[in-house]
Amino acid sequence: MAVFISATGTDVGKSFFSALLMAKYGTSHGLKYFKPIQTGSDDDRAAVQSLTGLPENSFLKNYYSFSFAGSPHYASELDETPVDTEELVRHLYSIREEKIVIEGAGGLLVPLTRRFLTIDLVQRSEIPLVFVAPVSLGAINHSLLSLEAIQIRKIDLKGVYFLGTPDDTTEDNIRTILEWSGAKFLGSFFFDSKERVSREKFRTECVSRFDPDWILKDLFL
């Protein structure tokens, strides 16, 4: 089963979380990584592959790549290459039974076109969702708004994973988000988000600390 990874927005840690999933379970579960839409010069596919050290055939090519680092709808307009959302829905629907980590671009209400949001893509492709939430000040509002949108659309939410640099609000943030949303707690991973994690540290320290109770191993069954 494929799993769609989304978050409150950009720079929350979707790629880092995807890399942790791939590093922990990629080989044992035969996982593949797929980012349908990439914007800007940074290549998340290459970054995840570099961190994990998994072979190239574990990483599917982007469906769309746009040069401007912005919302897909605007980046595609600048490149004069519109996103064919119907085709993208059909493609994701066709691979929903495969073991693929699908990383979205930005947050759930990011537009892919002027009439189609990322959350529409998740809903229509019928792929289960893992929501990555930040842990510091401001996490509650952003997370609950996104989770409410998920619930209104009756998307199959597998749960919330908390990621980022903790502060004095973190413990209560997690409790409050879970209590108000009723979402399942999938785990947490705290780290200094300002630090550029080396491949060696990622593979030796981060992966060993990730999902110690093996909660996420059943996501792809």
CATH class, anyone?
A: Alpha Beta
If strands are numbered along the chain, what order do they take across the biggest sheet? 2-5-1-8-9-10
Distance between the termini: 6 Å
State the fourth-level CATH superfamily.
Answer: P-loop containing nucleotide triphosphate hydrolases
Oligomer: single chain
Q: How is this structure best described in words?
A:
By secondary structure, the chain is an alpha/beta fold. It has a single domain (2-209), classed as Rossmann fold (3-Layer(aba) Sandwich). Helices cover 39% and strands 19% of the residues. The protein contains 8 helices and 10 strands. The strands form 3 sheets. A 6-stranded parallel sheet has the order 2-5-1-8-9-10, with helices on both faces. A two-stranded parallel ribbon has the order 3-4. Helix 2 (44-52) links the parallel strand 3 and strand 4 (64-66). Helix 1 packs across helix 2. It is globular, with a radius of gyration of 16 Å. It starts with a strand and ends in a 12-residue tail after the last helix. The mean pLDDT is 96. Substrate binds at residue 39.
What are the main properties of this structure?
221 residues, alpha/beta, Rossmann fold, 6-stranded parallel beta sheet, two-stranded parallel ribbon, 8 helices, 10 strands, globular
